[in-house]
Amino acid sequence: MSLITVERKILEKNDEIANLNREKFRFKEMFTMNLVSSPGSGKTSLIEQSINVLKHKLKIGVIEGDVQTNLDAQRIDALGVPVVQIVTNGSCHLDAMLVRDAFQKLIDLDLNLLFIENVGNLVCPAAYDLGEEMKVVIISTTEGDDKPLKYPAIFHNSKALVINKIDLLPHVNCNVDAISKNAYSINSELKIFETSCTTQEGISEWCEYLLSMVK
Amino acid sequence: MSLITVERKILEKNDEIANLNREKFRFKEMFTMNLVSSPGSGKTSLIEQSINVLKHKLKIGVIEGDVQTNLDAQRIDALGVPVVQIVTNGSCHLDAMLVRDAFQKLIDLDLNLLFIENVGNLVCPAAYDLGEEMKVVIISTTEGDDKPLKYPAIFHNSKALVINKIDLLPHVNCNVDAISKNAYSINSELKIFETSCTTQEGISEWCEYLLSMVK
């Protein structure tokens, strides 16, 4: 019971700060997305593609979360977009306090769109509100059709699902319709996109959606 | 500070029970492997392939860990191998207590080899000893070369690394040598295998290794 109490207190404290973050983001008229996926599903690649398409239309910033290394932040920095790296040193998810502190370094940039790339993990980030306007869950076609059923919380808590790496469909045992059906069974309101960051298929639809969210 | 104290106590209690599990496994002359990977890297497929090759040489059992569903256990059950499903109901890793309870249902079967398939998560399972003889980390070629650097704990704590889905190498931007180099930089003692559960490439080498561990 003491564990459960501690955990609830941590989440309560997190949600309090998340709400303050959200107020700050809205006051700045900045749309904030929290991107969650397994390691290697293509979160950073999707952000890179979005920046390439939208950088002349929107002022974009990125907060990168990683257990270790700043490899992803280096990729974003190479595109000339402001990026802050959070290294969690072993922790399995971002929390609202970490995002609050990271955002201090972006607060004066008048951003329209902030991507927060969470730690690669389909489980723990589902429980943590960072103050974002919406969570986006990303899975790749190589991960199997059953993932929405096996990791339901993040599909339940997200507003959009990006099914990435559709260029690999001819080579893997994956049924995109089955992924969508399983995802809708958890959350019938999900907006679903199919993308390839290699061939750019579906990226323009995704970017139109981003534009419609920001404006 | 109070959070850190609670966490340490949970890990201490876990390690105590893990050591009792290990004694039990050794007394039963059963070799136990804890398989850890991201969701969809191929843990269940690797277990299926190992069972297909080794089922006439070894008595194999499986403990399946999942956040939700018993889909993986159904796949193992179809092969006629004893399997116990642990559904963690949202928790992001197995712990020694869950494994102790699940093992009660397998204890009288005189198994030679027990696979414990952990929850799909590269972060949290690294910290939890289940009483296994060794951890095995699995990554697939679709996840990118940088994963050992970004998730070092599980590579540090494993004795073997399986690089799976090598059949997809012609279609993905992956350098197997870079994965190995990055993995060795974390843990120079790692035994590394390259496998495809689709084409069976590398499966016989992996199964020979399993046989050498059990005997």
Largest sheet of chain A: 7 strands, parallel
How many individual helices of chain A?
A: 8
What is the CATH level 1 assignment of chain A? Alpha Beta
Strand content of chain A: 15-25%
Order of helices and strands of chain A: HEHEHEHEEHHEHEH
Question: Mind telling me which CATH architecture of chain A this is?
Answer: 3-Layer(aba) Sandwich
Domain count of chain A: the total is 1
Mean pLDDT across all amino acids of chain A: 95
CATH superfamily of chain A: P-loop containing nucleotide triphosphate hydrolases
Return the structural class of chain A: alpha/beta
Radius of gyration of chain A: 17 Å
Q: What characteristic shape of chain A results from the CA principal axes?
A: globular
**Quaternary organization:** homodimer
Helix coverage percent of chain A: 40-55%
Flag low-confidence runs of chain A. Answer: none
The CATH topology of chain A, please?
Rossmann fold
Strand order, largest beta sheet of chain A: 3-2-4-1-5-6-7
Number of strands of chain A: 7
Distance between the first and last residues' Cα of chain A: 46 Å
What is the largest interface, and how many residues per chain? Answer: A-B, 40 and 41 residues
